[in-house]
Amino acid sequence: MSELSVNHLLGIKYLQETDIELIFSTADQFKEVINRPIKKVPSLRDITIANLFFENSTRTKLSFELAEKRLSADVINFSASSSSVSKGETLIDTVNNILSMKVDMVVMRHPQPGAAYFLSQNVNSIIVNAGDGAHEHPTQALLDAYSIREKLGSLQGKKIAIVGDILHSRVALSNILCLQKLGAEVRVCGPATLMPKPIETLGISVSYNLQETLEWCDVANMLRVQHERQDLKYFPSIREYARQFGINQKTLESLSKEIVIMHPGPINRGVEISSAVADGDQSIILNQVENGVAIRMAVLYLLAAKKEVEFGQG
Q1: With a threshold of 0.90, does the pTM exceed it?
Q2: Is residue 209 situated within a structural domain?
Q3: Are residues 104 and 182 in the same domain?
Q4: Burial of 45 by CB count in 10 Å (0-12 exposed, 13-18 middle, 19+ buried)?
């Protein structure tokens, strides 16, 4: 298969396993590009991409922007806080105003679940979901799975634990769906108060015991405690959370095997993981960051290629 089965990247649930494999093989090629002395290719030279971020983001926004520039696309950055949205303009009006400037693709992060899907139904542009509320974050899941594959060779039969604030996490849902499509076994672990109630219906196991989960898994993906989404107290204190669900060097040394440590970032050092673990030999956190650019290059390139075929451009 040489093209994606979808016209937008709205969520992992819309992708087939063949789509994910195509994104990975394309990312392999782009990873070679970004490690060359000249890191740019002219692949999207005639494409204009608008980055619409209605929520604060540093790493995802930078990663997309770098991916776009590595592909030689023209880039427009839009921040909602300084826009007409703050004056009451609707999402569709905002985006249609931007598209009237002949923008080909929109990368959007939005606090409302389903916003990217809604946009794809109402405007004539390729939409890439860079995170919609606590719903999905497909490129993060793709880069996480790609990083595990790079480290362990395959995801088939691997045991992956996702630990922490599952309730508020868009990374968790996208990761679960992506890992399952690639044949991995998934377990979530965290405080009962941060566990969505029907999560077992996704075909995963649930644990409230970190030590037992770490003994079980090959990879532990440690999620950030999202203070900004928590309007209630979900656990007694940060110190208590770190004691029960954080990983330090002592935790790793107590295990009967070596496991791989991941984190989607930004890290609350000393809460989810200690500095020694974040910077240690078992961590692939910086690989995740590097792979994020290659994965996003692959997604943008493959979606743009599809548009060229459909609309006869190029």
Answers
A1: yes
A2: yes
A3: no
A4: exposed
